[in-house]
Amino acid sequence: MLQRVRRTVVVGAALVTVVAGAAIGGVTSAQAAAAGCRVGYTVGSQWGGGFNADVAVTNLGDPLTGWTLRWSFAAGQVVTQAWNAVTTQSGSAVTAVNAGWNANLATNGTATFGFNGSWNNSSNPVPASFTLNGVVCTGATTPGPTASPSTPPTSTPPTSTPPQRTVRAYWLRPTDVAYDQRYVDGIATVMREAQRYYRQELGKTFTLNDPVVEVVNGDHPRSWYENTPNGNECYWWVVFNMQQELLRKLSLRAPDSRWINVGEISAEASCSGGGGGGGWVILSGHDADGAAGINGPMNRWYGGMVHELGHAFGLPDSTSTDGTPMSASFYSYPNTHFSQAQKQGILNGPYGGFLS
């Protein structure tokens, strides 16, 4: 049985601090026809255990209406606070997404942001490479595709059937929602963080597929998913409409013994919700926006995914706020932990064999 996701917005302690101008607004296009970029990365100062750095990213291609910069640290550095960008980090990989006010980046335009970080007091090398909206920054421009940049990409499920006993994640994009790489990258980041957390808590974790997020182009505009009745209350309409389309398009099942399936859709009415159970997580636009970094601090969305995956693995809600992710304590992520009974419930449940 599907369990409702808790909708109350409570902000817990930040895992990676998000500061100064989180991105806001609707979905924007994050892909340009011609692409190229240059990045300046400068360590301003460093001290015992800490440092600060300034980053300047110059767009050499066609104008962008949303940007995502990525790099990986080579010596264990960790971003602890950022300004003028929304940052998340998973292992050594860092993602910086534009703030709401600096999303537009003209040709030859430059956006700057900074951050504080921690380091090992031995080595603090500059990252070897950066990508801007998936394009490697070489200081040169490469031609884009011949198609119009406004043409949405085709759906991108794997070319072969993913391995069974793994976790598949989907972003279903209604016909009137523009493609935005931030949603693909953001959902993937949330899934990787949940994967890390489950290993921390259980000593083993689930396997994600490649690509982590499968983009599924919907058959209907956003309003259809929001207003077409499906289920006994409007809370479920959006997510049930999404789930049934995913079942049909990808030959999935509910429940599905082959995979755990995580569906997110960029559609949400005022009554919309989501939940998890029976090997499924189904979430509406509120959660998709959160994963993309445009709906508040990331810890709420990390904790929410841990919670809903708990339902997918077979756990019920806790009966009280008990410090575990299966209660409202998930808002305190990462300062929340599964109880021993919950750990056994996951490991001995119907999807415990998915963990290794």
Short structural description:
The chain has 356 residues and is of the alpha+beta class.
How would you describe this structure in keywords?
single chain, alpha+beta, Collagenase (Catalytic Domain), Immunoglobulin-like, 2 domains, five-stranded antiparallel β-sheet, 16 strands
Give a quick account of the main beta sheet: strands, pairing sense, barrel closure.
6 strands, mixed
Strand-residue fraction? 25-35%
- The helix/strand class is alpha+beta
CATH topology of the largest domain: Collagenase (Catalytic Domain)
CATH architecture assignment name of the largest domain: 3-Layer(aba) Sandwich
Portion in helices = 10-25%
Oligomer: single chain
Structure description:
- It is a single chain.
- With 356 residues, the chain is α+β, with helices and mostly antiparallel strands.
- It has 2 domains: 3-9 and 153-354, Collagenase (Catalytic Domain) (3-Layer(aba) Sandwich), CATH 3.40.390; 35-142, Immunoglobulin-like, CATH 2.60.40.
- It is built from 6 helices and 16 strands.
- It has helices spanning 181-202, 222-227, 237-250, 285-291, 298-312, 340-347; strands at residues 3-4, 35-47, 50-59, 68-72, 78-83, 85-90, 93-98, 110-118, 131-132, 135-136, 141-142, 166-173, 208-217, 259-265, 275-277, 280-283.
- The protein has a 6-stranded mixed β-sheet, sandwiched between helices.
- Helix 1 packs across helix 4 and helix 1 packs across helix 5 (298-312).
- The longest helix has 22 residues, at 181-202.
- The model is unreliable at 6-33 and 144-151 (pLDDT under 50).
- Residues 30-140 form the CBM2 domain.
- One of its GO terms (molecular function) is hydrolase activity, hydrolyzing O-glycosyl compounds.
